[in-house]
Every structure is written in structure tokens, then in C-alpha cells.
Amino acid sequence: MIEGSPSRTAFMTALQRGYHNACAAEPKILNDNLALDLAGVSSAEAKVFIDNLIKTFEGLSDFETANIFMHRIDCAVCMRSRVVEEKLLLAQKRNIKQLVILGAGLDSTAYRRLDLTKGLQVFEVDHPSTQIWKRQKLEQANIKIPENLKFVAFDFEKQTLSEAFNAGNIRTDRITFFSWLGVQMYLTDQAVRATLKVLGRYPLGSELIMDFISPSYVLEGGISEKSVDYLQKVVTDMGEPVKSKYYEHDLENILQESGFSNVDFLSAKWLVHNYLDGDKTFFDMPDRATSILSATI
Ligand SMILES: C[S@@+](CC[C@H](N)C(=O)[O-])C[C@H]1O[C@@H](n2cnc3c(N)ncnc32)[C@H](O)[C@@H]1O
């Protein structure tokens, strides 16, 4: 991240969720009707931003690849938030007490899904620069901060998560649901492992939903192995370079060594079947391109 500035990729993902909510065909993956308000842009402005991203990808590849690639990133960004909503609903039966959103950016779950967060203590943990900016955005958009939400400022690269949890009164003895979306790739391997070690010590019934980036590989469906490099170039230009990448089996090992007993990689097929009634209208992508997992203790 650029020192002293909020995360630009957090702005980008909010635009993706907001534009999807405003313009995608039904069945939508996600209904984030606060994303554009939070970002402070109209759907037309979001479209310009996304079109410019497609142009950048096109400059690195070609028209068709750029459009397919952008579509897949949009799908994955919306789907990872949808997975959190669906899994949070299921986790209520396990008597979870806390929802901790790590690297929250402009995530709107706490303001929008009061049905899912009722009775939970919710924490948004994020880099101080992004968090200050988000709080301004919430105020500008007149979005009320729920009483059960607490902000905890934290830099994954400079502090230990345990220090932040102590400072923010995040209990380590409670069954907890962790959402860690769109953050792993911006952290060093050391910070990722240190984070998972802390999360893996939570009580039985706790769960983590995260997404991750893999080293370049060939995906079926016409996207070359360079697609990871394209994304890398774009986020680096935003001041947020990719610092770590994992193959599934390596990440699974790290999660298990950290204390997670079950790691479930959610394939596109499974997501379409379970969340979209098998309708691929918007979410038509290769299984491995989703890179979303659920890890439970
Ligand atoms: C791509 S955004 C994802 C935001 C949100 N989770 C979402 O899904 O839209 C990346 C997030 O990681 C956070 N982040 C990146 N590096 C960080 C660090 N070293 N410490 C704390 N947060 C960091 C940024 O502040 C930002 O909120």
C-alpha cells in the first residue's frame, strides 16, 4: 500500500460489487446495494473505471482475453462475499459469537446484513489509512455504524495479530467467523503464515473464509497463464504489489499446520450449483479460477 493512503484495490473491489449489483443480470451473485454509496460513485462512474481496467488488460493481452479476464475477476470478487454470507448463515447454528473481517476495505456486511450479524460482536480490522478513509465514506454516505461493530486499526506487516486482538478486545476464547477477502496476495508469506497461526488457535466451530492467488498456471477456457501477471501489473500500478502466491496443496498444508482441521476449496461448479441454482448466466468460469476456500477448526 502507498504509505499514508487508503487502499486503491479496496476502492476497485467495492466498484466491482456495486456495478454488479446495479447492472448484472439475474440471478445476481451478490446484492451489495451499499457498495457504490460507500465508494461515493454512480454506476456510470463505476462503469468508466471498469472499462478503463479492461483497456489496461487489453494493452497487456488482447480484447477478448481482457474482457474474459475482467469478467472473471468481477465474478470472483462478488462470489467471495456471497460465500461469507452463506457460510455465516450456516455458522449461526454453531453458536458463533464474533465476526472478524480482516482487511475489510469497503466491505458492507456489517451495515447491510443485520440479519446475519445480529447477536454477534463484529470487528473490522484494517490498515489504519484504509480505515480512516472508510469511516469518512460511511459518514458521507450517511450509513449508520451498528452498535455491535468495532473498528480495529492494524498493519499485518508491522504488528502481530495477537497485539491487535488484545488492543481491540477481540476474544480468543469465542467461536469466531473470520472473513479474509482479497488480502492474502498483498501480504508477505511471513505475514500470511503468522495470521493463520493466530486464527488456527480459535475454538472448535470457528471458520475462516479466504481467497488467494496462485502462481501462474494455465486455466481452461482460453485464458493464458499470463493472466496472473496481468493482475499483478495492474495492482502494482495501484501501489499494492503482489507479495505472495500459493498452490492449493501448499496453502492447505499451512492451514492444517496452523490448526485448521478441514480445508474446503470451493469450485465454480459447486458454487453455481449451491448458490445460483445451477444458473451460469453470470458466473461461468473454470473451477480453479475461483480460489475461494473455507477452513474450519
Ligand atoms: C483488495 S482490498 C480487499 C478489501 C475487502 N476485503 C474486499 O473484499 O473488498 C485489500 C485490503 O487489504 C488491506 N491491506 C493490505 N495490506 C495491508 C496491511 N499490510 N495491513 C492491513 N491491511 C492491509 C487494505 O487496507 C484493503 O482493505
Describe this structure in words.
The protein is α/β, with parallel strands linked by helices. The chain has one domain (8-217, 226-296): Vaccinia Virus protein VP39 (Rossmann fold, 3-Layer(aba) Sandwich). Helices cover 46% and strands 12% of the residues. The protein is built from 12 helices and 7 strands. The protein has helices at 8-23, 35-39, 43-60, 63-91, 109-112, 114-117, 128-140, 161-167, 189-199, 227-237, 248-258, 268-275, and strands at residues 98-102, 121-126, 149-153, 176-180, 207-211, 262-265, 292-296. The chain has a 7-stranded mixed β-sheet, sandwiched between helices. α9 (189-199) links the parallel β4 (176-180) and β5. The longest helix is centred in the first third of the chain and has 29 residues, at 63-91. It starts with 7 loop residues before the first helix and ends with a strand. The mean pLDDT is 92. Bound molecules: S-adenosylmethionine. Residues 1, 7, 9-10, 13, 103-105, 107, 126-127, 130, 154-157, 181-183, 186 line the site of S-adenosylmethionine (SAM). S-adenosylmethionine (SAM) binds next to α1.
N-to-C series of helices and strands: HHHHEHHEHEHEHEHHEHE
Distinct small molecules: S-adenosylmethionine
Please tell me what the overall shape is.
globular
For the sheet with most strands, the description reads:
7 strands, mixed
